[in-house]
Structures are given as C-alpha cells and as structure tokens.
UniProtKB/TrEMBL annotation:
This is Biopolymer transporter ExbD. The lineage of its organism: Bacteria, Pseudomonadati, Pseudomonadota, Gammaproteobacteria, Vibrionales. Pfam families: ExbD. It is a single-pass membrane protein; Single-pass type II membrane protein. It comes from the Bacteria. InterPro entries: ExbD. Belongs to the ExbD/TolR family. Gene3D superfamilies: 3.30.420.270. GO terms for molecular function: transmembrane transporter activity. GO terms for biological process: protein transport. It is found in: Cell membrane. The chain crosses the membrane at residues 20-38. It comes from Photobacterium sanctipauli.
Length: 135
C-alpha cells in the first residue's frame, strides 16, 4: 500500500476570532451604558469657601456665573433672560436633578439673584450654590 502525501490536503488549524470580538463589543457597550457622566457648567469659577458647605449628590444641572457676570449653562454662554428656557429644557431631560449654581467669588450678587429667579420661574425649587469647604 502506497501512501500519497500532498501539500494540498494538509489542513492548518485556524482560530476563529468572531466570538471574541463579539464579547469585546458587548463589554464595550456595557461600559458605555453604565458610565455616569459628570456635567460641567462650562467655565472654571473661583468658588467662595464656607464652613457649612455640604456635598450634594443629585446636582445634575450646573449653572456657572463668572466674575464678569457672564452666565454659562450646559457649556454654553447664555444671557440671563435665556436661563429659564435652558433650565426647562435640561429639566425635561432629567426631572429628578437639582440645580447647582457655581458663582465666582467676585461675581455680583445681583446677577446671581437674577439667575436664581430665572431658575425658580422654570419650576425648580431645589437650588444649591456651590462652595468649597473651609477645612
């Protein structure tokens, strides 16, 4: 009996990568969906310090008031009169969240009061003002 060996009939072992890629994509989607995103107001402010500053867990809507009186909502500069419409829009997206005002230490109190008034007219009763702890 004669055996015939040919190079055409040899099968090479190949690893199928499709199931591994499926698992990687599923894990990627899982991590993207479960990640909590931090919302910023749009500018860095020099917050005043306070002895009674507390951490608020549910501060989803951030409003920043700069030293020169400029107002930022959702990383966009807005006029004081447009704060109400922006808060109403953001409140529709996350109705559970509170509003946190990040007012600069040098900001005029009149601008901060006008911003607070606009937020109250948007139907938000839970407003916090950001401060750093004096400790």
């Amino acid at each position: 009996m004669k055996r015939r060996y040919s190079s055409e009939s040899s099968d090479e072992a190949a690893i199928d990568m499709t199931p591994m890629l499926d698992i990687v994509f599923i894990m990627l989607i899982f991590f993207i969906v479960t990640t909590s995103f931090v919302k910023e107001a749009g500018i860095d402010v020099n917050r005043p310090s306070a002895n009674t500053a507390q951490t608020v867990k549910k501060g989803n809507i951030m409003v920043a008031v700069g030293a020169s009186g400029d107002v930022w909502v959702d990383k966009r500069r807005v006029e004081v009169d447009a704060v109400r419409a922006n808060i109403e829009r953001l409140r529709a997206e996350s109705p559970d969240g509170a509003v946190v005002i990040q007012a600069d230490e040098e900001a005029k109190s009149g601008v901060v009061v006008k911003v607070m008034d606009q937020i109250r007219m948007a139907g938000v009763q839970s407003i916090s003002i950001a401060a750093t702890n004096k400790d």
